[in-house]
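Help! Submission page says 'invalid entity' but I think these are all valid:
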Amino acid sequence: MKTSIATVCLSGTLSEKLHAAAAAGFDGVEIFEPDLVGSPESPEEIRALAARLGLRLDLYQPMRDVEGVDEDAFLDVLRRAEAKFALMRRLGIDVVLCCSNVATATIDDDDVSASQLRRLGELAQDHGIRIAFEALAWGRYIDDYRRAWRIAELADHPAVGVCLDSFHILSRGHDPSAIEAIPAEKIFFLQLADAPALSMDVLSWSRHHRLFPGEGSFDLARFLTHVVRAGYTGPVSLEVFNDTFRQTDVRQTAVHARRSLRWLEDAVARGLADDRPQDYEPLPAFGGPRGFDFVEIKAEDTSGIEALLEIVGFTPRGKHRTKPVTLWTAGEARVVLNEQHARGLDPHIAALGFAVPDADALTRRAAELGTPFAYRRTYEGELALEGAVAPDGTEIFWSSSADGATADGAALRDEPLWAAEFEHGAAVQESPVSGIDHVSLSQPWQAIDEATLFFASVLELPTTSSTEVASPRGLVQSRVIQSRDGSIRIPLNVAPPILSGGRAALPQHVAFACDDIVALARTARSRGMAALPIPQNYYDDLAARFDLDDGFLATLRELDLVYDRESEGEYLHFYTATVGDLFCEFVERRGRYDGYGAGNAPVRLSAQRAGEGGAGRADIVRA
Amino acid sequence: MKTSIATVCLSGTLSEKLHAAAAAGFDGVEIFEPDLVGSPESPEEIRALAARLGLRLDLYQPMRDVEGVDEDAFLDVLRRAEAKFALMRRLGIDVVLCCSNVATATIDDDDVSASQLRRLGELAQDHGIRIAFEALAWGRYIDDYRRAWRIAELADHPAVGVCLDSFHILSRGHDPSAIEAIPAEKIFFLQLADAPALSMDVLSWSRHHRLFPGEGSFDLARFLTHVVRAGYTGPVSLEVFNDTFRQTDVRQTAVHARRSLRWLEDAVARGLADDRPQDYEPLPAFGGPRGFDFVEIKAEDTSGIEALLEIVGFTPRGKHRTKPVTLWTAGEARVVLNEQHARGLDPHIAALGFAVPDADALTRRAAELGTPFAYRRTYEGELALEGAVAPDGTEIFWSSSADGATADGAALRDEPLWAAEFEHGAAVQESPVSGIDHVSLSQPWQAIDEATLFFASVLELPTTSSTEVASPRGLVQSRVIQSRDGSIRIPLNVAPPILSGGRAALPQHVAFACDDIVALARTARSRGMAALPIPQNYYDDLAARFDLDDGFLATLRELDLVYDRESEGEYLHFYTATVGDLFCEFVERRGRYDGYGAGNAPVRLSAQRAGEGGAGRADIVRA
């Protein structure tokens, strides 16, 4: 698949954008006119720079308000166009994007527009240039790609064709299947953007909220499939106006953008199967993640976490034979505590491990998606875990199940191979904790869309729900990524910008599953665990909302348990105090409850805020 | 005017919110239920705290989905309500907000809703409570305040009335004049919010984008006037859901909120004139600002700025007799250079002075608006300037014109009294600079709405336009505040959040007016001024956009001048290099051009970004 990106997607100067696009592996770029106008480099320098970087200059854009005008105005269009065509020759670009008229159109007549496009095409042809006519979703008269194509067909000139843009078509709810009826040689260009489902005016939606493919709600695989079926073989180009991506690091955003096209190419290739074009390749298939292999918590001193794990019945499985790392297990939960290279660090989630059927395939897949690799020092005889760095900096590792990756998940009950590297452990004991229910990671606000694509594309973990939670310091955005079978659940939380100052400033947490939370809470408290105190007002409200048994309510109150109920089941959970950037949660799911008690999160956030006023540093277990 | 504020408007814990509301001078608060539920304090403690702080607890809110349901569901409503009424008695609150049904309504029948409200009213009355029924803009069946009132009238119970909310009424475009037909004793509560003109779904608009009065596009003075004419004398309460205000410092936001109500009270009082209620007071009128009195630039070393001022023909008017401060003047432009308490500071705009007809009245006005006062050390025989601190930290001073404040502006041509405090100055010389055209201040993103209200309410400087400008680091929001006669123009610019990290991270600038910019640019360059280099591509684009004379275009190119043209006139300007947080601009307005060349700002921002790569520190004038 030939890839391209509009320079408006990226931050920085034009020269920085070209370098970043080339480094990320794009084949070409669209030059967005204001980027050139503001650039100190001459058109010849830009052309030479692109040539050296191996980037095609695919398109010059946009030329606005070129048709549907009276003759006087059209003569001015031709004058402007002549100057721009001369400029394009200096750049060596031979396709220009012409948008349907927004500002100056006075004539709503296909014949007039077609005739003017034909005359513009004649002028373009003299310069060796072709014009790609595009229906803007907010065009004054022409706002549908089918009408734009009709007019281009009427213009009947070899230098006049269309540009298709997924945003302009899908934002209006237009059926993209008619694309297949357009002759391939008349589709001069293709622009792709995803977008979240928003109910707002389409211009603001387009200018501020577009996303890279895989991050929004458009079915771009289906869209692109229509274009491929039409026979289009030109560049597949990203044109994403997004307030955040305009600010983020240009190199990282280019890699992120390129990843979205690789993900989309895979989806189209798999959908078309044997009908796929030669240059559409599926990604290596690794079988999907099967469950959490481990959670790694890192700190200069992990003993506070060890104390907690001990009182909830984890077994200390010993120390790694070459590193200052220990392993604790309970049921299927494996927690790795890492004190290496951790000077000054408070406890935080440093890595997640996933069990997968085919780790090698996932490693190749991650490489094709341009993922930064995670490095771990490995000695002779140790299992080398492969991994990647998620956009928030968390390391993600994967390994094949011990038994060679059966697909039914049963293999997870066996120990992974790497567990044998830990020595001097105790005999495994029973624990009320049965596994890891979910891991919540806090995200810098500018990384959440990239994280969504990262987990979906690399690890086949799609976003399944999205919500907002009020905290005393502002609204927290929360998105849940989850495997299809629910064995992996990762809520991603975004702190309000003032709180975070660009960093991920909410605590993370690990939630452990259990079958009897009341017994677990009683035991843990009796052994000194500091639970997060829940306000009494919460229980009064719970009593008003749900018709709960008095004794049950008294138990919740006594143990600082919070509660949720849906038609599918119930959810009981409690939180520990926060140490460093981390707290733990213990949860019991009853029935088929599939959520996270999001309604309780504001109470938790308020209680955590109230706790910040306390004297001295918190600890999870009383000394 | 009795004032109140919903706790949801503010950040922090419930206790912090109450302290902040009281400190800002509110008479009462609405308790937003989730704030209480998340609070460790008992209802009795909250009641006692409010009593100690002198705050009334005006309203408990919200109670949802209470009518339009079948009998089974209504029995559950009564059960919930009974628990909440008991809670309200503990709090000592006697009015509860009941919203029209969104989630559970199944019966679209005024009689059913009225009958259920009557039964709810009977239960409420037993607890000494009244219910204020409100039509949400997105209510399932009831979404219009006129229908809500019809149903309350049908309910015909002393404990059943309505709550009016400006957002729910004005967002739908409903005519508020029918409010005057509602009996005053049936309006149980009044909530006010402003909002920007946005085209999006009304629920998202309401939940994220409400503003305090005076910051959006609603005509709240007219709205409140209808309510006053209806005879309502209860609290005027702010209910503003805003993603930013939920994050900002709670004390500052409460003061900001209170200011918005004082501004609105003034507008209503002035509109009603002799018909105003006794407790609606106009603000002291100061006659409106007449022009810039001075701009103060502060730095440890201001000599770089002095060199620039000298070569563009400013006269050094000497040193202040008691402070390390100098005055430079040219035409009506006065620049104060301040090296006091400036160790380590780069040049930046520290203060603006305005000439006003009645400085004492403005001082009283600022005090009534809860403005933080600016302090300047003043010695015997010196003019004590009164001033305020704007939300971005810039100090704003004002003084009456020397001749005793004639209203025609002519007085500005005379020197202000404070100028006599400068000694050892040179004889005033002619200068090509005629005055200060505008001053551009960069704003932290979280302060822009507060700044808008500050300038509008304290200084009668309304926002006249708003735009967005692309920069290599993201979109810059720009709002212009401007006096009615154009003598004061202040574009406020907001940097993209990543760049700013919460601070105002764009350079500020002072733009000086002149009558012959070509001559000024030539002279200044010949004397060593470093102009910001404008890319050649810009001039190629200019030639394509405007049909300019070749010689004129060559002059623009030669002198790094940028250009804009509208039907009203032309605008020529150039920028100096940036030193510290500051650059200067020189502008010539031709005809009746009234803008700021916003189309040139992306080029300027790109050129400034390109310049950052240069070696060493920039200076405005070559040594």
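Support: the input was valid. A stray whitespace character was the problem, and the output above is from the cleaned input. Chain A touches chain B through 59 residues (CB under 8 Å).
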